[in-house]
Amino acid sequence: MKRVLSGVRPTGQLHLGNYCGAIRQFVDLQHSHELFIFIASYHALTTHSDPEALRASIRQVAIDYIAFGLDPAKVALYRQQDLPQVTELAWLLACQCPMYLSDKGVTYKDFQAKGLTANVGIYNYPILQAADILITDADLVPVGKDQVQNVEICRDLAGRFNHHYGQVFKLPEYRLADGAQVLPGIDGQKMSKSYDNIIDPFMDEKPLRKRLNKIKTDSTPMEDTKDPDACPVYQIFRAIAGVEDERTVQLATDYRAGGLGYGDAKKRLFELILDHFGPARARRAELMADPEQVEAILRDGAERAREVGTATVNRARAACGL
Ligand code: ADP
Ligand code: TRP
Fold this sequence. Notes:
Helix content is 56%, strand content 8%. By secondary structure, it is mainly α. The strands form two sheets. Strands 1-2-3 form a three-stranded parallel sheet.
């Protein structure tokens, strides 16, 4: 069975973009692959330094992963800090990493382009991410487009290490979500935790309805025909339900026929979210009320990750002469 590794930074509430672009892929893969899914807490520290907020976000991401459908019986779900061996592996890799590889890192370059001073954590970010992947001997890394460079740097580092010390690491491949579409937020830009434009499918009904009403649409009058593909309401609907779903087909037909107002389309999206995420919303409420259960799941996941991870680090240490 092929092994899969992926993670997300605990830096805020997960949203429909994360779900459609990344998490749904993990949920599908768990039936045919061995999954290691982790909460990238060390990576969050590169940009987020409020301890209370970090603790809360780590807990929430764990709960939401499970609520979205990751089955702890099938998936090793763990916090990065529960596998601290990964920092040792990052060091061993750093010693094989020429500066120019880290210089290329997009996050680091973004900081520089904005005239901000990046910390060394940002600079070393791709090396730690490579260690996350290599420590589990993963075959496959499902990610969004923005993460492809990091997986490529990982392959480069693994190749250099193997070339110098002998065959220690497996070279992983990345895997993009089907369609790999970028989901728009309520303002029409890419939905992102950083833009205050997210839709959180776990919101209570009333604020959720209000939030959906804020999705930016144009001023085409109700009776006119409309292009569904140009409307974020339809784009979000299609991403959740799938293009072939009869409700999606109906919505597209009604847009093209004219006579459908955006208010009505938003109402259909509201109902779709309640329907599609109904089980997830219920599971989340149960997990929120049972922190012990979540803690036990994370402890189990960490044990499994340490079993695999310690063996990899020992192999790498021995190869280096340690
Ligand atoms: P954010 O931009 O909200 O901080 P992250 O960078 O933490 O999101 O992304 C976590 C995962 O979710 C990545 O694999 C990323 O590609 C995916 N993702 C984030 N936003 C979107 C979006 N709007 N559409 C599709 N996928 C997304
Ligand atoms: N950098 C990733 C993000 O911002 C999170 C991450 C850290 C990751 N380590 C990883 C993703 C290893 C995949 C594999 O989304």
